[in-house]
Amino acid sequence: MSQVQSAALPPEALLAQYQDQGYVDCFTIDLARSVSLGDFIRAFYSTPLFRAERLVLRWAFAAPSCDQELAELAANQRETFAVWHVEAREDNQILLRDFSSRTRSWLSVVADGEASALYFGSAVVAERRRPGSGIVSNGPLLAAHRVYARALLRAAARRLASRDSHQNQA
Length: 170
Hints:
Oligomer: single chain
Strand order of the largest sheet: 1-2-7-6-5-4-3
Largest sheet: 7 strands, antiparallel
Number of helices: 4
Structural class: alpha+beta
């Protein structure tokens, strides 16, 4: 497994439509196994780090989520999960928007034989009603977000790699 890297957003990314509307980031990590989008969704949103975020969302926004809902989202049988709604989905990528419609989360898998590149990106769309209220691109909150985004992607990749090693031992 490689290290999490900052990356240019692929042009075919569902998140690409927001590049000129505010803050957008993209991170990637390579994994030495083939992964489906559903596997990635399950791994990403079930890491201990993200489970903590799910608890915060339950408390702060009255937006509970459970593992069954996560399984349904991963299987393309559900359009909502905690504070997110599926905005768009393709075989290898999903774009979620939060209830405020200002924040987007994007997950993508690019499989190449026995390996996969996992992508995680975010967008914060600028409010249109207040001219000059653009997104601060280097503030402390965004710096913290970048650290957190890398940690989430790394945790999901470790979970997927660990799952593979457990399957190989069986």
